[in-house]
Design a protein that fits this description.
seven-stranded antiparallel β-sheet; disordered N terminus; 25% helix; Bactericidal permeability-increasing protein, domain 1; 346 residues; alpha+beta; Alpha-D-Glucose-1,6-Bisphosphate, Chain A, domain 4; 6 helices; six-stranded antiparallel β-sheet
Length: 346
């Protein structure tokens, strides 16, 4: 019960011209099943791979996409329910053979109980020839991480695209109350990143006196994926949103801009060599105006993993620790968790 003279805002009938869901108090539900089927099909049909030797494969058909998805809003909190069983048909060829080999990729447990990194991906192929087995191993090595990426992109799109408008503006600020937006997915999923993002904010405003010293950061990390997948994860807006669990924008071209983690990090691309190198002008929003650091990321693909080397210069001395830990905590860790880059490829 509200105290005398102190009305609980949840019980105040707010004036809204559309008379809809005052203060987002009532339960509302949106069926995302048909949208999800179309989204999943469009994402999976774009998956393909060609090795340096010329062996190649691609997803030809989404044979099965059974399941359902709904988004619920209760008191301004978004809750996601989804469960999918997906069967994909792929086709591929091995150099030196004219045969087209056909197989299936099955994802039986894409649901709100698992993160994208935890989904099972099963690969089979028809025939038992040497070439068929070689293609199967290639699909396992490159297709499993690719499918986990797609699952992460789908979840990100459901949060950032299809749920738009479910949390209505309130009279107090005229904007949706997104502070309470939550997902019911596994606590190891990307929604946890929103809570971790609190560590990105600097409470004390720094003065010109203590921003005069600039330091460098050198990092090295191993990822169980290919260089092209890692390059896309670091530059494509959908994949950035997927592992950060936040609004991200990116235009991966020289002089193109990017904005990550709801504008906490922003900058522009200074150099891009696909699957090899990413150069950026990079800053936290709390840094003094026009202060940018320089980030250079180099990717070195080995047989079963990719080595990432990062150098960042021009970081203000007071923010070196936060910046270094931020790469590990908000980039490397979530990328391995969401996309499965910490797991063996085969």
């Amino acid at each position: 019960m509200a105290l005398w003279g102190k009305g609980d805002p949840r019980w105040i009938v707010e004036e809204r011209p559309d008379s809809k869901n005052v203060n987002n108090w009532h339960w509302t539900e949106r069926d995302a099943t048909n949208w999800s089927k179309d989204k999943l099909k469009s994402l999976f049909l774009g998956v393909k791979h060609e090795s340096e030797e010329g062996d190649s494969w691609f997803i030809e058909e989404v044979k099965t996409c059974d399941g359902e998805a709904t988004i619920n809003n209760r008191k301004g909190k978004l809750i996601y329910f989804y469960e999918w069983n997906i069967v994909l048909k792929y086709k591929g060829k091995i150099v030196g053979s004219e045969l087209n080999h056909i197989g299936t990729i099955t994802i039986p447990n894409l649901s709100d109980e698992n993160s994208a990194a935890d989904v099972d991906v099963e690969v089979t192929i028809t025939g038992d020839s040497k070439n068929a087995d070689k293609l199967k191993q290639l699909v396992r090595k490159t297709g499993i991480p690719a499918c986990k990426n797609i699952c992460g992109e789908y979840l990100s799109a459901m949060r950032t695209e299809y749920s738009t408008g479910m949390v209505l503006p309130t009279k107090e600020n005229g904007a949706p109350n997104t502070s309470n937006v939550k997902s019911n997915t596994n606590p190891n999923n990307t929604s946890k990143m929103n809570e971790n993002m609190k560590g990105l904010n600097v409470k004390e405003k720094k003065t010109a006196k203590n921003t005069s010293c600039h330091l460098s950061i050198i990092l090295k990390e191993e990822f169980r994926t290919t260089a092209d997948e890692l390059y896309m994860a670091l530059t494509q807006p959908e994949r950035l949103s997927a592992f950060t669990g936040s609004q991200c924008q990116s235009k991966p071209e020289v002089n193109g801009t990017f904005s990550i983690m709801n504008d906490n990090i922003s900058g522009s691309y200074t150099e891009l060599i696909p699957n090899k190198k990413i150069g950026q002008k990079w800053r936290f929003k709390e840094w003094p105006e026009d202060m940018y650091s320089t980030v250079v990321i180099e990717l070195d693909q080995k047989e079963d993993l990719t080595i990432l080397k990062l150098s960042q210069t021009g970081v203000p001395d007071y923010d070196t620790s936060r910046t270094e830990q931020g790469w590990k905590r908000h980039f490397w860790g979530p990328m391995k968790q969401v996309f499965g880059y910490g797991a063996q490829l085969f």
